[in-house]
Amino acid sequence: MKRRRLGRTGLEVSEVGFGGAGIGGAYGASTDDECVRAIRRAVELGIDFFDTSPVYGNTRSEERLGSALSGLRDRIVLATKVRFPEEADLDDMAAFMRRSVEASLRRLRTDRVEILQIHHQLGAVRGRYMFAADPPRFAPRLTAADALRFAEGARDLVREGKVRFLGITAWDGDKETIRAVLERGSFDTAQILYNLVNHTAAGPPPLGFDDFDQGEALVSAAANDIGVIGIRSHAAGALADRLDRSVKPESDVARDHARAATLSFLRKGPVRTLSAAALRFCLDHTTIATVVPGFKNEAEVEEAVAVTGLSPLAPEDAAEIERLYRRQFRVGL
Known about the structure:
By secondary structure, the chain is an alpha/beta fold. It is built from eleven helices and twelve strands. The radius of gyration is 19 Å and the shape is globular.
């Protein structure tokens, strides 16, 4: 497993990490045993960066990680998050954060996490946004000032050794707000969306773009030595030969899966699946320190680890991906 520097944290982490949404049930059902085996297999194969949240599976992801990582804690870098359920919870951020972190540590069966992240959309003004559509679930939007208060409120947790570094979730928000937060220097890492069907973290969107504009966040992160955690590498499971669960025809996952059909030319030679090509595409962007697919079983872990041994995508394939992207995957143009 190759390792990369996680920005100014100085931590060296596996270029493929383990995203905790899958073991929380976000991408289809899996049993406790399947998840524990996947986690332990990941460590065995050299994955040492694990990212989770108390929101994933209503704490199930953290609980499964805590169970599986018994005896392995000193071999990994662990990241979790804080989400404030209501705007009133922002009144005393420090107190809420402490309760959230201490509960996470109990579930994770550890005394510290390396990275604590904001698990919220960031925007120019406070408000309420839907973070999950089925069923609809909402959370307060945080401003740049709120994010800076989060960093201030975490000072005691850092001093006590319960947290080492702070990060933000830099997607599905206002791009100018995210850029301003990244430039302030209070946060060491950022989770940034980048995948085969959304390149806006690296450059401006094409005409007719209909997804989240990431506002060239990878450029801002590189300029400020922010450690980048690549998320949504497989567009919530859409960038695969087959969907692993039922989705609504009008959903973003269904839209992205249809677009993925135009990328079948990537399946050749050692790249046998679209999911392998999707991961290789993200790994080829060297600003990203670690990519964290949402694994839920050993087979997914093993395929991802195998991708780290593959060569970068061929220049002509990268050019064809860009051509299709600029046309928003409309064929015949």
